[in-house]
From TrEMBL:
Signal peptide (residue range): 1-24
UniProt keyword Glycoprotein present: yes
Protein name (database record): Phytocyanin domain-containing protein
InterPro entries recorded: Cupredoxin, Phytocyanin-like, Phytocyanin_dom
A GO cellular component annotation in the UniProt record: plasma membrane
Source domain of life: Eukaryota
SUPFAM superfamilies for this protein: Cupredoxins (SSF49503)
PROSITE patterns linked: PHYTOCYANIN
Amino acid sequence: MVSTSAQFIFFCLFILFTATATTATDHIVGANKGWNPGINYTLWANNQTFYVGDLISFRYQKTQYNVFQVNQTGYDNCTTEGALGNWTSGKDFIPLNEAKRFYFICGNGQCFNGMKVTVLVHPLPPPPSGSIAANSTPSGSAAPVVFHKGLVGLRAFVLALASILFGSGWI
């Protein structure tokens, strides 16, 4: 049995890590229409804002379609030569892990029928002004700690580890 003090410590850690947690956005390509020919993916992408740490996911019939990450030339010419990635599960979750333009096409010829999308991934926006102290800290003092999306995985790991070590029957 875990002592009450250990449960209290775990509870405090839990509050610390979940209170500041942010989540990545999962952008489902084509929304409810999915990854299929004849859809205007440029219009879909222009109505989205992508940030580093977000996911782009493709939903499609895996026996009919696929997803290739390509460079701009591959995108413009609908070719998979020199592809940077290839997914075929029908439910593909692709992390957008850097601020740049990403290019995706369907590699079975459907790119010519519009199955291609390009997205511009932006750097994370600065934290809201309420989450950091004003620039009134004295010189040499510690800067406030602000958690960003990149630490979500660390928080999840710490919570899972604490749950294993302390048990989770009381939650």
